[in-house]
Write a structure and sequence with these properties.
The structure is a homodimer.
Chain A (H helix, E strand, L loop, with lengths): L4 H17 L6 H10 L5 E2 L1 H9 L6 H13 L3 E4 L7 E4 L5 E5 L5 E4 L2 H8 L6 E14 H11 L1
Parallel strand pairs in A: 4-6
Antiparallel strand pairs in A: 1-3, 2-3, 4-5
Helix pairs in contact in A: 2-4, 3-4
The structure holds a DNA duplex.
Chain lengths: 152, 152
DNA sequence: GTAATTGCAAACGCTTTGCAGCGCC
DNA sequence: GGCGCTGCAAAGCGTTTGCAATTAC
């Protein structure tokens, strides 16, 4: 995610306060997982994060699941469901659309200010929105080219 | 879905043509599954569909998975990923946003013409979109009320 | 007739759970 | 010191796969 140091510090403090406010414990595992989560690509899954953490710490998968769940409650991360296999996580304040290739499964991010404005003004009866996950399914250029070749 | 009879017939013909064009076989299972899929709620999962089919036909789950996949390729159904557990399917031409409660998992549909217009005019470099799945996560009014009570 | 499709059952992969032991408060 | 949290291993659950039997063409 190429996070600035000051953002990283701010998020660590935010997590710390969240943990304190819930009367939970500040374990080294929790902060290690936050730190590595901030090193990931725009979106990542539990397995990618786990394999990265594993290099440096001795932490088990279940703990990664638990902590990432906490980071979502704390509004640092957000959980998206882009495709079949597994949940994808992203930094909460990085808003974008997802272009998802139905052929190869690749995901590309597209930022669009008009889209953000549209959602800012949306209001619903009887529903308090927290965040939006917009997933556009189609075919990426690489697969499109490949399909044309395959037809020859 | 409360489908009109003429729409039902048109979709059956569409599926029939799709099957023929692919040189596949017109099995009774395939048409039974299409028929029952059109009886479901706005969105449904494989298990709901299977349990409904099971009442009337002897069809196995794997066949339901296979056929629903075909119906997606044929552009009659669309596959959405609203939450953890399983894929949700919807009629392809019924466009709406999903309001998903992060507390109870309920899903509500909201139709918005402005949203459709926004997406009509969207264009991407190197990506051919097929459809959009817009998922708004938040808290529904029922859970909101419940939480307030729990705090007392 | 024959190859696609089906039912069945087992396998797969992501996620959750139960539990004994560790370590934060 | 107590109990929340961890690692570990097993279980859970939606989905896919392999295979023999069936059936559409």
């Amino acid at each position: 995610m190429k996070i600035d140091d000051d953002v990283r510090i701010r998020l660590k403090e935010k997590f710390e306060e969240f943990i304190k406010s819930k009367r939970m414990r500040q374990t080294p595992e929790r902060f290690a997982i936050l730190d590595k989560a901030l090193d990931q690509h725009v979106h990542f899954d539990i397995d990618e994060l786990y394999r990265d953490i594993e290099k440096e710490y001795r932490v088990c998968r279940a703990t990664v699941y638990n902590t990432v769940e906490l980071l979502c409650e704390c509004n640092i991360l957000r959980k998206h469901y882009l495709n079949e296999n597994q949940a994808a996580y992203e930094l909460a304040d990085d808003r974008h659309l997802h272009l998802i290739c139905m052929s190869c499964g690749s995901v590309r991010e597209v930022r669009d200010e008009k889209f953000n404005q549209y959602f800012e003004q949306l209001k619903f009866k009887q529903f308090k929105p927290t965040f939006v996950s917009t997933n556009i399914y189609g075919i990426c250029s690489q697969c499109s080219r490949k399909n044309h070749k395959d037809l020859n």
